[in-house]
Design brief:
By secondary structure, this protein is an alpha+beta fold. It has helices at about 5-10, 40-55, 90-100, 100-110, 115-125, 150-160, 170-180, 240-260, and strands spanning about 15-20, 25-30, 35, 65, 85-90, 145-150, 205-210, 215-225, 225-235.
Length: about 260
Amino acid sequence: MDLQSMVERFPGEYSVYAKNLETGDVAAVNEHTERPSASLIKVPIMAEIFRRVEEEHLNLDETLTLRAEDQVPGSGVLIDLTPGLRLPLRDLTTLMITVSDNTATNLLIDFVGVDSVNALMRRLGLHHTALERRLERIPVERPRANRTSAYDMTRLMELLARGELISVDVSRRMVRILERCQGPVSIASQASESDYIGALPDVRVAHKTGSLSQASHDSGIVALSSGIYVVTIMSQGAPESVLLKNIGRIGKDVLRQLSKRSR
């Protein structure tokens, strides 16, 4: 069964873009469709932080102060900590990716600015990705949601995997943080050791998840014995639990198809 037929069987809407970095083979469905990004938008924010490290000599030991008004619900741990705490940019960035901390994300958005993140995305040619507002703010600050596409996120992961996002060193450092993401892995079901930028012996997937009540996404780098892949699967329009199960099925099938083509 081809990918288009597969996703049409599932409830909800799906976007997929996957690429075998060794062969160039691609699997894609609705890859340029813009969808609410959920927490996938945290990867572009991290990229802007590290761009400043490389190009403006930003010191990640610089600290920001946690205020009560900064603490927002959703994923993360900072909502439960004491206001007044000073946190290094390094730790805020790690929390934003590994446990998808929404409060850490908003502190970083305030620090770098919405326009700076979007300017970097345009510079990288990612025209379907936009940071519009901070997370979990009530009332909503702007009517448009943060958004991206499967193509844009996979392209971002490809730049990271190839060491081409700002610099090799910056790419490597971002991949190492993505390797520690605690979200469920849907873009791969099995992995074996392979060699890609930032790889560790016991880590084969570097990724970021995103979810809403009716959306579930996963995007990252997958190292398998059959090759190195960058994959993004986005879904919406059904309960999150249903979508999560289905994107896991899609992820397994996509890598199987791309692996067969490379033999």
